[in-house]
Amino acid sequence: MVGRPSALTLRLLREVWRHRGQVISIAAVVSVGIMTVLTMRGTYESLVTSRDDYYIQTRFPDVWAHLERAPESVADRISSLSGVARTTTRIALAANLDVPSTDAPALGQFFSLPDDRENQLADIHLRSGRYVDPRAPHEAIVNDRFAIANGFTPGDSLQALINGRLQDLLIVGTAISPEHTYAIPPGSLYPDDERYGIVWMSRRAMASMYDMEGAFNQVLIALAPGANSQAVLTGVDRILRPYGGLGAYPRARQPSHFILQSELDGNRATGSAIPVVFLAVAAFLINVVLSRMIATQRSEIAVLKAFGYTNREVGVHYLQFAMVAVLIGAALGIGMGMALGQAMVDLYGTFFDFPTLEYRLKPILI
């Protein structure tokens, strides 16, 4: 059997209704602060988790080095450097693409794929179709956004001007890559999915087309735990200098990672600073409202104490008034924060490519 509410509980309900304007104001400010925390920090955590999982799945490198041309034996010297855990060499060149849906030629950035994907650094994630057959000289995989923008599907053909010769390529799949979560053409600040595409072909096919048998012009490096990255960069530059090395650079300077990390840093800063402002304002409003209530209700407080209520009980009574406003704001903030966080994650998904990108709310944020 449910007992009758106590006199203080009934008084609390009357005070909440009497001061509903102040309660709504406090709740609104609290809800915005909590909403911002869950939206920005929740989005940040979701992006970081998706990115890190993606990097692990595809073995995202720690170091890149571009050069003119070097024999495959040079890669063994790089692998022997202290701090190097694994290397992958590849061929990477640009070529014009003949895309029927555009008036001007599109630019294609070509990368070779090894026969064995098991230990490959910077592996791709297939969206549709299949992996290239190493024995098929004209099979290609294109990045998913380029395919969608131009209406390409597996089985379509694509013409490319490679090494001065027009080549007919067969698209066998579409994919995304951790190196191109935000794919932008060279010298541009924004993506151009219609006129800039990433194309992957087998190592044998690209070596034949570009006369690069037994050679490479890019090397990707995974560092061992605790490795001195600067020492590795210096060692790689020293080895590749006779082969037209253009300077090794770390993950922090990889274009796509840099753009994504900059966005994450801004998101984290916003999610940390703005809620503090709103919650500080809420605390100020609570202090003002309670101070005014206590100052104007001294006679009522005296009556309560005359009826036997202790200072502690009266203090808790007024604290409960503040808690009602805070709890209303928290409930609204959690609901709005989760909804807006999901919308933010969906929005980021239109700019950055991940295999999976879901809003994930950590209990500690609540």
Question: Could you walk me through the main structural features you see in this protein, from its secondary elements to its overall organization?
Answer:
By secondary structure, this protein is of the alpha+beta class. It has two domains: 7-55 and 259-365, no CATH class; 61-250, no CATH class. It has helices at residues 7-18, 20-58, 73-79, 144-150, 203-209, 229-240, 255-296, 298-306, 311-349; strands at residues 63-71, 84-90, 92-98, 106-113, 125-129, 139-143, 157-162, 165-176, 196-202, 215-223, 249-250. The strands form two sheets. It has a six-stranded mixed barrel. A four-stranded antiparallel sheet has the order 2-10-1-11, with helices on one face. Strand 7 and strand 8 form a beta hairpin. The longest helix has 42 residues, at 255-296.
